[in-house]
Structures are given as C-alpha cells and as structure tokens.
Specification:
InterPro entries: RIO-type_Ser/Thr_kinase. With 123 residues, the protein is mostly helical. The chain has six helices and no strands.
C-alpha cells in the first residue's frame, strides 16, 4: 500500500515490526535503523560513502582543530606597542600611508574597469 502522506507513524512501525508490512517506506526520513530498533547515529548515505571513512573522519577532525589554532595565530596584531616612542610612531604611520598611496596608484578606476567588462561582453 503506497501512501503519499504519513497518517500514523507509530502504527506503521508496529505493522512492520509485527510483519504485516514488509518495510517502512519513509524510514530514512524518520531516522530509524533498518530493523527499526532505534535511531540511526549516522545516515545510510554517509555510512555507504565512508565505510572506511571513520579513520579519515578522525584525521579531518584533528586537522580541523589544527586549522582553527592556525587561524588564531594568523591574526596580526596591528595595534601599536604601549612603549612605542613618538618618533617610531611617526615612522610607522608614514610607512602605512606610503603603502596605501601605492595601492591607490595601482588601482584601476571603476569606470574604466566597467568599460573593459562591457567591451569584453560584446565580443
């Protein structure tokens, strides 16, 4: 018997367990194991693709932990040191301004960039 909607899930599970019906059509949606003994810890799709993936998963978990600690260490503290002298502060600010001026020189103006994109689109 094929139904389009679920009327009574508990009844359907009891019917499958007692043998009145062969299988529960929507068992993947409910998250139950194949024998309906309890909930699945991992979906069937993931179990099939990673039958030996538990080892890979452990490696991924450890690499994720390493990556998160690397992300923290990649942070560059841009604030000035507390004991910085006024002279070194001026030098640092001047260097930053020069870097920003270089970026502005290399920047392509927006209207020029848009024009190039339009010309490339037409071709």
């Amino acid at each position: 018997m094929v139904q389009e909607t679920v009327v009574d899930i508990e009844r359907d599970i009891r019917n499958v367990k007692s043998g009145k019906e062969k299988e529960l059509v929507y068992k993947t949606i409910t998250g139950l194991k194949g024998d309906l003994s309890g909930p699945q810890t991992k979906p069937e799709i993931l179990e099939k693709t990673t039958s030996s993936g538990e080892e890979e998963e452990e490696e991924e978990d450890s690499s994720e932990r390493e990556n998160s600690s690397e992300d923290d260490s990649k942070f560059v503290n841009s604030s000035r040191p507390r004991d910085e002298s006024p002279d070194s502060k001026k030098k640092r600010k001047k260097a930053v301004k020069e870097q920003q001026a270089e970026k502005r020189k290399e920047k392509v103006k927006k209207h020029i960039k848009k024009r190039k994109e339009r010309l490339l689109k037409k071709k």
